[in-house]
Amino acid sequence: MSNDLVVSPIQVTIARFVSRLVDLAPAIGLFVSIGFAWETAVKVFSIPAYLLPAPSAIGVKIWEARDMLAQNLAWTMAAAVLGFIIGTAFAVSLAILFLYSRAAERALFPWAITLKAIPILAIAPLLTIWLGFGLSPKVAIAAIACFFPTLVNTVKGLRTVDRQSLEFLSVIGATKAQTFRHARFYAALPYIFAAAKVSSSTAVIGAIVAEFTGANFGIGTVIVTAGYQQDAAMLFSAIVASSVATILMFYLVVVVEKISLFWPEASMDT
């Protein structure tokens, strides 16, 4: 075989990287265009910094306040991640209960809908009063924000196993636990990850909202303080920092999803 036909791992990696850049080119181009237009508009129309700071001013503020932003963002993300894990775990557990107990579903599902219908801003002050100004209320709000979409998706996923598979498992004498482990669990995974990708962002929003109602640390407190001080550059800096962290959390879920959904049909389901 000719050496020209041998492709090294480095070449494969470079090819994938270039392909990924090509895929991202429209998004990157739009982002740069909006930033350039924003910067130009601020300069041309002499917009005051307290109303709309230029992207360059926001970048300078982020660099100057990088340590403070990082510390507060870490506190918020800790609450968001904990709430995401707790909310997802509780929702999946409840969905499994619903699968095997229609009575439990009829009794508890209306309460889940009620919890979803209550605005987070209405719950946050109560949880702050009950749980204090530490990490607990933020974790609770983040968990509540993640709970309902994960519950609904998991219930649907657990019940999407095709009839032929269930009949085959019944014929070979599989128990309920074996049917769950070999069929229902894998059927539900794509739905769980679909909900997790949504919940990863709502968990961060929930944690920040909890900080609005009272907290000592967190990116939400930075946003509230900047608003009171009319420091628009700091306000945008906090928003940018929280947005970047939320995007990273989303793609972390995507990576775990790609590792977990290893069978061919899973990619088709998602």
TrEMBL record:
| Highest taxon, organism lineage | Bacteria
Classification via Pfam families: BPD_transp_1
What is the protein named? ABC transporter permease protein
What are the subcellular locations of this protein?
Cell membrane
Which family does the UniProt entry place this protein in?
A: Belongs to the binding-protein-dependent transport system permease family.
**Transport in keyword set:** yes
Q: Where is the ABC transmembrane type-1 domain?
A: 69-257
GO cellular-component terms in the record?
plasma membrane
Give the record's keywords alphabetically: Cell membrane, Membrane, Transmembrane, Transmembrane helix, Transport
**Origin organism of this chain?**
Rhizobium rhizogenes NBRC 13257
The UniProt entry's GO biological process terms, in alphabetical order, are: transmembrane transport
Q: Where are the transmembrane segments?
A: 21-38, 73-100, 107-133, 139-158, 232-254
